[in-house]
Amino acid sequence: MNVTMERSVSLWMNSGPVLDAPLLRSDERADVAIVGAGIAGLSTAYELMRVGRTVVVIDRGPIGGGMSSRTTAHLASALDDFYHRLIARRGLETARRTYASQAAAIDRIEHIAHHEGIACDFARLNGYFFLSPGDDETLLEQEIEACEQIGFTGVSWVDRAPVPGIDTGRALQFPNQGRFHPRKYMAGLAHAILRDGGRIYANTPVTAFQETETGVVLTAGHGHQIHAEAAVVATNSPVNDRVAVHTKQAPYRTYVIAGPVEAGSVPDALVWDTQEAYHYVRLQPVGNGADMLIIGGKDHKTGEAHDMGDRFVDLEAWARRHYPQLQSVDYRWSGQVMEPVDYLPFTGRNHGNQRIYIHTGDSGQGMTNGVAGSLILRDLIVGHENPWCEVTDPQRISLTAAGEFLKENIDAASHWAEHLTGGEVASTNDIPPGQGAILRDGLKKLAIFRDESGTLHVRSATCTHAGCVVHWNPFERCWDCPCHGSHFAVDGSVLNGPALTSLPKADYEE
Ligand code: FES
User: Fold this and answer.
1) Within 13 Å, how many C-alpha atoms sit on residue 362's CB side?
2) How confident is the model at residue 400 (pLDDT cuts 50, 70, 90)?
3) What is the per-residue pLDDT across 470-506, written as a single tens digit (0 to 9) for each?
4) How far is the CA of 481 from the centre of ligand 1 (A)?
5) 132 neighbors 274 (Cβ within 8 angstroms)
6) Which of 165, 238, 310, 475 is the most buried (most CB within 10 A)?
7) Residue 417: is its pLDDT beyond 90?
8) From the CB of 471, is ligand 1 less than 6 Å away?
9) DSSP assignment of 86-139
C-alpha cells in the first residue's frame, strides 16, 4: 500500500499508463538497490544503468504511484522559494549551482523523452511570476536582480502575466521552463530500465536496512533480502532514518484542482504568484478540443488543518476569478511536499552511512529536484565529481537557517507533547460515519475511525516512526503524522514513510 490508496485521485493517476511490477519473491543482488519508484528513484536507476551499474528498484506501492503521481509536474528552473532568498541564506555560488542543476534537469528530461521515444507531452514554455495584491513590490525586482547575478539569462519584465481574468500588473517572464505528464514519463523510464535488464518490484515495503563493510542488505516485507554495494532511498520522506534528516525538513500538504478549458483559450505557460502559500498553474493537453487547467495552492503543515473543504472552495474561487474559461472542476487531490529549512533538497550520503544515499526535501520542485538528484547520486556512487553535490549534502549544517530549524523542531516537539493533552472527542458517539478522531483512553491516545456501516476501527494514535500523535485527515481519509510526514490508512497500514510499521490495533470499551 502507498498514497495511491488515499481517497483522492489525481489527473495523472486517471490518465497515465499503469505499469505492473511483481512482488519481490526471492532474494536479489545488484550493484545498487533503490527504494522508491517515483521520479527520483526511477531516474537514478536509469542513470546508473547508463554507466554500467546493475539495479533493483523496489517500492511499497505501485510503480510511479507515490507523491510523484500527486504533483502538478511543473518543470521550473525558476525557484519557488526565490533565488534572492537563497542567496541571502546560502550565498551566491550555491544559488548559481542550484539554477544550473534545475536547468540541467529540464534538459535531461527533454533529452531522455526524445532519446527513449517517451510520449509524455513534454513541452518547453515560459514561466510567469506575478505579485499578489498587497505583496511587497520589490519582491519581483529582487528576484530579477538575483537571476542576473546567478547567470539565469533571458528573465525579463512583461506588462502582465498571461492570466486572462485579471490584470496582474507587470510580471517576470522566465524562458525555457517546461511541463510533462509525470506518469507517462515515469512509465517510459521504467520500460527502459526493464528493457536493459534492471529489475523493478512493486507493493513490497522495505522494512530494514543494514550496512556492512562491503555492502548493504535490505530486508523487504516477506523477509526476502536485496544485497547490493550501495542503496539509494528516494522516498518522499526517507524510510531509513529515525532522526537526522527529519530534523531539517517538515511535511506540508498541498491541494490541487483541475478542470477543462477550451483548447487554446488559456496560454500554455507556468504561472505562479507571490501569495503565501503561492498559487501555481499550468495546462495539460487532453485532446478532444480541451486542455486541463491545473491549479494548486493552499498548503499547510501536514496534520495541522481540518478545513480542506474550505481550502478547495478558496482554490476554486481563485481559479474562476483568474481563469473564467474554467468549465468545471473535475479533479481535486492533495499531495505532500517536504520543505527543507534552507530551501534545497537533501541528496547524497546519509548521516552515519558510507553506502546508503538519500534524496528528499524537494520543496515545490519535486520533478526537477528528483532528476537533478539522480545525476548527483549517479556521480557520487560511481565516484565522479559533481558540481552540485556540496549544495545538497544531507550532512550540511546551515547556520543561517538556524531559526527555521528551531521553529520546525519546536513544532515537532509540540506534537509529541500531545500525548499529555486531552482527546478531540470524549466519546466514540461524537465520531460521525466516515470520520476519524483522537480519543484519550487512560494514558493512551487512540486513533478511531467510524466507517459508513458504523463499525469502529481503533488503532494506537502513536506514530510508529518516532512517537508523535497522528492527526485525522478528513479529505484523504487517513491518519497524517505532522512530525515527519508518515500517513496511515484507517486500518493502520503505512501509506507513506518514514514509518515502516502499521499503527497497532487497540482495544477500546466505551
Ligand atoms: Fe516521525 Fe511520525 S513521521 S513521528
Assistant:
1) 33
2) low
3) 999 999 999 999 999 999 999 999 999 999 999 999 9
4) 6
5) yes
6) 238
7) no
8) no
9) HHHHH-HHHHHHHHHHHHHHHHHHHHHHHHHT--S--EEEEEEEEPPTTS-THH
Q: Which residues contact 235 (CB under 8 A, 6 or more apart)?
A: 35, 36, 38, 41, 66, 360, 497, 498
Q: Is 234 in the pocket of ligand 1 (CB under 6 A)?
A: no
In 3D space, the residue among 435, 436, 420, 361 whose CA is nearest the CA of residue 395 turns out to be: 361
Non-local (6+) Cβ contacts of 333 within 8 A are: 8, 9, 10, 11, 70, 255, 256
The atom of ligand 1 lying closest to the CA of 415 is 4
318: region left, alpha or beta (phi > 0 left; psi from -120 to 50 alpha):
alpha
Atom of ligand 1 minimally distant from the CA of 466: 4
**Which residue minimizes the CA distance to atom 3 of ligand 1?**
484
- CB 415 near ligand 1, within 6 Å: no
pLDDT in tens, 164-215: 999 999 999 999 999 999 999 999 999 999 999 999 999 999 999 999 989 9
pLDDT in tens, 315-347: 999 999 999 999 999 999 999 999 999 999 999
Gap between the Cα atoms of 354 and 362, Å rounded = 23
Specify burial of residue 422 (Cβ count, 10 A radius: 0-12, 13-18, 19+). Answer: exposed
Mean pLDDT across the chain, nearest whole number?
A: 94
170, 262, 283, 473 from 265: Cα distances, Å: 21, 6, 11, 36
pLDDT score for 137:
84
Q: What are phi and psi of 123, to 5 degrees?
A: -150, 145
Query: Does the beta carbon of 63 sit less than 6 angstroms from any atom of ligand 1?
Result: no
Spatial separation of the C-alpha atoms in residues 294 and 307, rounded to whole Å: 21
Percent of the chain at pLDDT > 70 equals: 97
pLDDT, tens digit, for every residue of 257-285?
999 999 999 999 999 999 888 899 999 99
Domains along the chain with CATH numbers? 421-496 (2.102.10.10)
Beta 225-233 vs 249-262: how paired, if at all?
Answer: unpaired
CA angle 368, 374, 380 (to 5 degrees): 135
Q: Are 160 and 322 in contact (CB under 8 A)?
A: no
Ligand 1 pocket, residue 498 CB under 6 Å? yes
Atom of ligand 1 nearest to the CA of 251: 3
